[in-house]
Amino acid sequence: MTVALKHLLRRVERAGSPAHTQIEERLSEAIAGGELRPGDRLPPERDLAERLGVSRMTLRHALEALARRGMLMRTRGRRGGTFVAEPKIERDLTTLAGLTLQLRRQGHTAGARVLSAREGPAGRRTANALRLKPGDSVIEVVRVRSSDGAPLALERSLFAADRFPDLLDNRLDGSLHELMEERYGEPPVRAVERLEPVVADSEEAEVLQVKPGAPLLLVERVAYSSTGVPLEYARDLFRGDRTRVVVESGQPLPDAVR
Questions:
Q1: pLDDT number for residue 196
Q2: What share of the chain is helix, strand, coil (3-state, %, to 5)?
Q3: Which strand (E) or helix (H) includes residue 256?
Q4: What are the DSSP E strand ranges found in 134-175?
Q5: Distance CA 154, CA 112 (A)
Q6: Which fold has domain 3-84?
């Protein structure tokens, strides 16, 4: 056991916040600070609870909370146990860089598997987002995005068919934003994105390899050209246990408008 882990496993204080909260905070800080690294295995529950001076139920409460946050991974079997999970993927909303580029920048291998790609009539919500009439032809591309081979997001992207003719004849398992620029000369330069916490239904859970009811992050996006034309309407579902959002604020507002 490392010196850092021995320090972390000092007995829980009886005063102050609940014991499971103290354990959760102590371990999360150690993971965030690099004292516990991805792949590190925690001691067995029985030993860990004894060292911390708490019941196994209290300990399990803290470990399961950290697992839900994506900081720990709990497995069963002969080689099972509680392990420090890989860091979450950062979804940076400060820039318009597509997911493929963002994953590359973070040292991950981006992947995309096309579930469906078809042309059909636009519904009201899609028509409003793309400034079309309901029933106008749109192209829908549904893909599973992966990071280092593990499912990360379920993407549903829609495009006006007359703006991107023959889109379905192209390879759709790479960056769609790069395809829009290279094939059609229409790179998105601005986007409005709305975030909403949701939970996975049975179909989404199967695709993303999570349990039904698992937390997901819905990102609804409209991407625009340099002239303000809406190019893409997307509704992406990101795994809550593998994703966190980064937003950089701008200049502070003047006192008069705060």
A1: 94
A2: 30, 30, 40
A3: none
A4: 137-147, 150-160
A5: 10
A6: Arc Repressor Mutant, subunit A (1.10.10)
- The sign of the torsion formed by the CA atoms of 77, 52, 54, 30 equals negative
Helix axes 56-68, 19-32, angle to 10 degrees: 40
Q: Which of 8-12, 19-23, 81-85, 163-167 has the lowest mean pLDDT?
A: 8-12
Which candidate, 124, 125, 147, places its Cα nearest to that of 241? 147
- The rounded percent of the chain whose pLDDT value lies above 90 is 49
Q: Is the pLDDT of residue 258 over 80?
A: no
Nearest to 144 by CA among 97, 111, 169: 111
- What the block records as the tokens of 93 is 């909303």
Burial 213-233 (b: 16+ CB within 10 A, else e): ebbbbebebbbbbeeeebbbb
Q: Which residues contact 63 (CB under 8 A, 6 or more apart)?
A: 23, 42, 45, 72, 74, 82
CATH architecture of the domain with residue range 89-246:
3-Layer(aba) Sandwich (3.40)
Write out pLDDT tens, residues 3-39: 556 666 777 777 778 888 988 888 888 887 788 888 8
Dihedral, CA atoms, 238, 239, 242, 247, nearest 10 degrees?
A: 40
Which tokens sit at 55? 């019941």
Domain boundaries, the chain: 3-84, 89-246
- pLDDT score for 33: 79
pTM of the full predicted structure?
0.71
